[in-house]
Design brief:
There is one protein chain. Helix 4 links the parallel strand 7 and strand 8. The protein is 45% helix and 20% strand. The relative contact order is 0.11. By secondary structure, the chain is an alpha/beta fold. Catalyzes the NAD(P)H-dependent reduction of ketopantoate into pantoic acid. Catalyzes the NADPH-dependent reduction of ketopantoate into pantoic acid.
């Protein structure tokens, strides 16, 4: 399969590197990383299996005019529209979003004449330096049609990922899975970002109550959007992730530490927007969103 990974940072490089063991892969990445991969290949380190530790995908900074059976999109949520417009200049048969937050699939679908799949990824990854990506923890790719149900295309993509050694599940309930992931992120990410703590912070007071409330609010909004996600299920998922990644720094906490724009609009901000459309109040998500947006505005990031 010909595969483009658009936004090959940490996760994109890990997924793309593993796929390159069995498929023709092109990484669309920043200049330093793309140059290192072109010159010396991509080195895979950490919790990967016994396959090749160095692969040689193609790499470019220019995502225009590309042709592929599949594009895996791993850019930040606020760059989704620009990524879609760039991919639209080429010929892409299917697109899989492995991004944080909600709304990415809809953005891709409105700008691309391609089948759009939704996905989640729990692999831990760090781009150690240009040309070197480390898997910091094994995980799973879950993918399926963005509106739920099954499709032959999703099955083919799942088979391609599995053949490359990626733990992969093809699911028929992606809307619910995306909302569950959103509930987890809504509870963990802004709390750890604002307090400069690791994920374990939300497992104990005083942060636990705040994180739990944000998660419960998100589950309530999911149900208002006709997605079956109970408070108990959402909280259990959040606790499981917080325990499994206790020593990790959330992506939003990493963004604040690096003085970068966050994905708050597609996480807690999305909860606030959907709550308003359904006549619900989500005061904890609203407060967390306002605090992160204020931080961004104060640093000229908005």
């Amino acid at each position: 399969m010909d595969i483009v990974v658009f936004g090959a940072g940490s996760l994109g490089s890990l997924v793309g590197g593993l796929l390159a063991r069995d498929h023709d892969v092109t990484l669309v990445a920043r200049e330093a990383h793309a140059r290192a991969v072109r010159e010396s290949g991509l080195r895979l380190e950490g919790a990967v299996d016994d396959g090749p530790s160095r692969v040689v995908p193609a790499a470019t900074t220019d995502g225009t005019g590309l042709e592929a059976d599949l594009a895996v999109v791993t850019v930040k949520s606020f760059d989704t529209a620009a990524a879609a417009d760039t991919l639209a200049t080429g010929s892409i048969e299917a697109v899989l979003s492995l991004q944080n937050g909600m709304g990415n699939e809809a953005t891709l679908a409105t700008r691309l004449d391609a089948s759009v799949l939704a996905g989640t990824a729990t692999y831990g990854a760090i781009l150690q330096e240009p040309g070197i990506v480390e898997c910091t923890g094994p995980g799973e790719i879950v993918l399926g049609p963005r509106d739920g149900g099954s499709s032959a295309r999703a099955e083919r993509v799942g088979e391609a990922f599995a053949a490359a050694g990626l733990e992969t599940t093809v699911a028929d309930d992606m809307p619910r899975r995306l909302w569950e992931k959103l509930a987890v992120n809504a509870g963990i990410n802004p709390v750890t970002a604002l307090t400069a703590t690791e994920n374990e912070a939300v497992r104990a007071e005083p942060a636990a109550d705040l994180a739990h409330t944000a998660t419960r609010e998100t589950a309530r909004v999911a149900r208002a959007c006709d997605v079956s996600l109970s408070n108990r299920e959402a909280l259990a998922a959040m606790e499981t992730v917080a325990e499994a990644t206790a020593a990790n720094t959330s992506s939003m906490a990493q963004d604040l530490a690096a003085q970068r724009r966050t994905e708050i609009d597609a996480i807690n901000g999305y909860v606030v927007e959907q709550a308003a459309e359904n006549g619900l109040e989500v005061p904890t998500n609203r407060t967390l969103t306002a605090l992160i947006r204020t931080w961004e505005q104060g640093r000229g990031l908005r």
